[in-house]
Amino acid sequence: MTWTITPEPVDSPDAVALWRSYYTEVSDRWYLLHQGRTTDPAELEREITANTGKDLSLLLLARHNGTPAGTAGIRRTPDPTTTELTRVFLLPHLRGKGGATHLVTAAEQAARTLGATRMILDTRSDLVEARALYARLGYEETQPHNTDPYAEHWFSKRLT
Question: Where's the N-acetyltransferase domain (predicted)?
Answer without folding.
Answer: 17-160
